[in-house]
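In the current project phase, the collection of sequences with tokenised folds has grown. A sample record is quoted in full directly below:
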Amino acid sequence: MTDTLSLLGELDKRSREIFRRVVEAYLDSGDPVGSRTLTRTLSEKISAATVRNVMQDLEHLGLLDSPHVSAGRVPTQMGLRMFVDGLLEVGDLNETDRQKINETLSSNTADVGAMLDRVGAALSGVTRGASLVLSPKYETAIRHIEFVSLGPDRTLVVLVFSDGHVENRLFKPPPGQTPSSMREAANFLNALIEGKTLAEVRRMMQREIAARRQEIDSLAHEMVESGLAAWEGDDVDSARLIVRGRSNLLEGGDEDGLERIRLLFDDLERKRDIAEFLELAEEGDGVRIFIGSENKLFSLSGSSLVISPYMNADRKVIGVIGVIGPTRLNYGRIVPIVDYTAQLVGRLIADRS
């Protein structure tokens, strides 16, 4: 940010206005901006030739670029960063957007996952981008666990938490499981887990299985390990990332843009580096904007990411809300939407706890 702001400070008033007008016109239309177009919007009456000279100077500074053979200019990634850091005018959240988000969160359901899923749908609808919601890890004490057979190779493990929250996971059970071994595994776990969080159960389980090996047969032993494994590893982090509105990213894209979007979809399908996504927001308070290759998660797709953390009642970051789209985002409108939604979700989660 310091480099772009110092560069902005070196521009004279005319160059700064022309640069700002180019970026704003590009963000509005997505098209290269020509000198004749700019002369009609500038506060100072100057010739198109003078505007072209200034635009050439801005291009030499790395702030603008000439795509293909077009006479118009578009901002570079560095130019967009400078605009966002020093010239972006963030508007207030308009009442229509506020109402749509509030309506989504008006339900009194205790299911935080369902609420966050609706948040994601609302964000993608309001912003016309794709929304990303990283849900909090659930650390409430467990009340009960149950295994439900859905067939020879599919079993549902159900966790009921002390606050009434319920989570389910499908997994493939070890071969040879019977209803009695499933009941035995559930009874074994229920005798140990009450009052403990899922993280605490994972830490103690290997020790308890070894100490009580004589109390549980081998089938039930395997069932216990497989059932708990359904909450471990990459699958858990993947389940925590809710993505909505991917189809919005396909609207109006050129062939190169569609290829970048396909790369982005691949990243989102694999849901890689979920921990990094949270770290991006934990590094600073409030809304953060990542443009193009600055975005560690989706750098190949040339996308922009606007994210904000949300916090629990103890002011601890527990999740992230964001919008991803082309670098030609309406940042001034998206920033207050993301900020408002993150604060609202934090308050609702704090109230539930």
Remarks:
- The domain at 142-236 is CATH 3.30.390.10 (Enolase-like; domain 1).
